[in-house]
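Late entry, written up from scratch paper. The run itself happened at the end of the previous shift, but nothing got recorded in the book at the time, so transcribing now.
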Amino acid sequence: MAKERRRAVLELLRRPGNARCADCGAPDPDWASYTLGVFICLSCSGIPQETSPQVSKVKSVRLDSWDEAQVEFMASHGNEAARATFESRVPSFYYRPTQADCQLLREQWIRAKYERQEFLLPEKQEPYSAGYREGFLWKRGRDNGQFLSRKFVLTEREGALKYFNKNDAKEPKAVMKIEHLNATFQPAKIGHPHGLQLTYLKDNSTRNIFLYHDDGKEIVDWFNALRAARFHYLQVAFPGASDADLVPKLSRNYLKEGYMEKTGPKQTEGFRKRWFTMDDRRLMYFKDPLDAFARGEVFIGSKESGYTVLGGLPPATQGHHWPHGITIVTPDRKFLFTCETEADQREWVQAFQKVVDRPMLPQEYAVEAHFKHKP
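Output as recorded:
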């Protein structure tokens, strides 16, 4: 009898919508919440248990025993029914995490859905949908590396995020235009599980700001408030565009980050180890991963515009310590890099190739022109 019930639960996994985790979309979920009626992956299964066990009680689909009432509950619910209920009013701009995202984003998404029921009750969405937000975040100092409490103010109406060095300061220390702002969670790099990296353009160069807040909900609300402000800006800038067109432009994760060695334009000096960030078509390099400004930036266009990625280095290249080379050919010059391992080289080549294979957008030609005329 127990085997039959377990087989019945396994059979439910074959239904449309149940073959992927209800919360992060990972394939082949092995766990189920028998109080919510959803099938979830191992990684997501522990989150409600830690935060609110009264909301979700879980079992292994394959290993635990199931009683008749639990099987019937799973059969009458399932992932699609739960989505229709608990995700019925998710704002278009709200970030829906995937299995690739950090623990914090997935945890807050799950708590927002089931525990706080934010997507059933729109009034609970005020912290990120009101168009205005202010509060204190820990910000890393540009020169001394210390995290200090700073006041931040986001105003959708002005299309800007500002921060102030003193609580009573009249003038902000920096004004970041929403038009050029990106936010991405970087817990490992920042050294805090709630670490958030902001980038914006200052005099056409990328400026990094590193932040965190001890409260996970607070920092995720800031992240979604920034996405909401970007969404509003893009709706005004592109009035004919659909939500589906705009949502991918609200924030972006980096295509790849890590250490490589590089040499200069004449390729006569030795190779130096640098931290590289591939942000869309901008390849930036830093002496330290937490530097405020890049030491340099390389624009990577498309193959139609004369950009090519090659594994290896030109013959007779000298001065490098790491053995696995990459050459990026641009219309003006070649850029030479080396990686410590073959796996690193393969991942970087794939990231560069992905960008080169994508046709350039009209506005990207203007960015390319700026790079060519940089002093």
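The radius of gyration is 24 Å.
(Scratch paper discarded after transcription.)
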